Structures are given as structure tokens and as C-alpha cells.
Amino acid sequence: MRIIMVMNAKGGCGKTTLATNLACWFADQDYKVTLADYDPQGSSLDWLEARKDYEGIPEITGLNALKEPLKTERGTDYLIIDVPAGVHGKEINSMLKRVESLIIPVLPSPIDMRAAKRYLTELLDSGRVSKKQTRIAFVANRVREKSVAYHELEDFLQKQNIPVLTALRESTNYLKSAETGLSLFEMPRTFVDRDLKQWDPIIDWLDSKKSMPV
Q1: Among 94, 113, 194, 204, which has the highest number of CB atoms less than 10 A from its own CB?
Q2: For 154-182, what is the mean pLDDT?
Q3: What pTM value is reported for the model?
Q4: Domains, the chain
């Protein structure tokens, strides 16, 4: 079973957006997927609840990781884990057990960049990350490509010596996804084509050996 986590100590950076859309991508490829939600707000689980309004879309199993053991059904191919803000210290090591790939979304703001830099220091001190048992990568999130803030974020991320997979633009399609329980991959291609192209590097990285333990 492949285990992928979306984590950042900073709240509001788009962890749930990444986790839910990743879960859908793999479910759409006919994999058996579990989406585990550690966040007390339960945003990922709420998103799964909204999906029940539709017929003929891939099923994703939800797991309330705050109340249930992190155990998946037999035959699960992918476990996607949505982690809340504020995870630090020893709790990082506990969360990263068995996690192969960790994606860190970062917003284009000085506050988020400073928080990401401090958090990266903590992650690099983790045994799993330092031993390359868990591979990590950044995703620039909610960017306006021509803005000064985005270019500052781009420069910042490039200096961290960690793979920067892509930049996801600020788009109302993500709001529609959160509201409807549908992923970008399930919306009409005409409306989301530009956004989907920005996801290709994330999928390519997860499909590559670069995202797997050494």
C-alpha cells in the first residue's frame, strides 16, 4: 500500500485541497483509496460526505483518524493522509511512520514562507526524512503567476534544496471542488483544463522513484 501525506504546520495553506484531489486522482485510476483525516474540523470527511450526492463516481473510503486507528481495508492501494496545522516535534515522527511521500503546500506570503522555513528545519531533523525513508516536496499554492508575491515564493522555495513540483493558481474551481465533493479531475474538462495541467508534475513525481524511499 502506498502512503502519501499532505502536511504543513501553517493552517489555511490548502492541505485538504491537495489531499482530496489526490485521493480522487488515484480513485479515478481504479485504485482502492482511503482518505484519512486528522483535522478536528473534518474538512476531508465533509468533502467525502458531499460526494454521496452523486452516482457513478469512484468510491473513496473515509477514515476519521482522530477517533479510529489508522487501519485500512484489505486491498487498499493508496492511503492519503490529511494532517492538521500545528504538528511539531515528536508528533512529526509519529505522523510520518510508514509515510513514503510528503507534500508541503506553501502560500505566497511572507508569513507562510517563514513558517515553511521553520517547519522544514523540523522535518529535516526527523529520522525518516533524514534517512530518506520519507521523501518530501513543495507545492506553491494559490498563486497569481504575474504577482510579485509569487516570484518571491518561487525564489524562496528554490533556495530550500527541496523539489518544487508545481504552482497551483488561485482558482474558483477549487472552491467548487470543496463545495460539491467533486475533484478537478471529475469536472468538465473545458472549465478545468488549465488547472489540470498544473497537477501533472505532482502526479509525475508521485509516480516516480524520486518520491519513494531509498
Answers
A1: 113
A2: 93
A3: 0.93
A4: 2-102+123-136+167-206 (3.40.50.300)
